[in-house]
């Protein structure tokens, strides 16, 4: 992140995707996205003074199937009435933060916080056609649903074995951050 302008950057939700993939019935994949996300990225003079915090509205889940989305919002999965948000707060950046790096942090889902690591890539910093200073990142990772207390499942037929929903959830994030005009003007 040393190539970025120091300051507090705001997540541009309209140019950010927070997606996931989970194996269904052991033979196919279900994909989804969260449509409401907010956050900030603080870039310090050195990497150790940098951090990111992102809040995801769990009710904004969209798998393309309203009935499935309703089930995922229920107590079987996210229990969004009691736990409407998921939060990621970074704790460490390892590697070449100007290119590929590991972003370590704590992820809280359904009131349970666990350490996670995301493989990340800095896409660069630029000034767009409207004079806004922007930076982009991609990040991927995998979590265990069970580690967050999300254990609902249904067994498959005995001959097939296994369960309906895999424990492993793959995460894919494409994020865009914008430096407020007063900080970007100093760059």
Automatic annotation (TrEMBL):
<comment type="similarity">
    <text>Belongs to the UPF0312 family.</text>
</comment>
<protein>
    <submittedName>
        <fullName>YceI family protein</fullName>
    </submittedName>
</protein>
<dbReference type="InterPro" id="IPR007372">
    <property type="entry name" value="Lipid/polyisoprenoid-bd_YceI"/>
</dbReference>
<dbReference type="Pfam" id="PF04264">
    <property type="entry name" value="YceI"/>
</dbReference>
<dbReference type="InterPro" id="IPR036761">
    <property type="entry name" value="TTHA0802/YceI-like_sf"/>
</dbReference>
<feature type="domain" description="Lipid/polyisoprenoid-binding YceI-like">
    <location>
        <begin position="8"/>
        <end position="178"/>
    </location>
</feature>
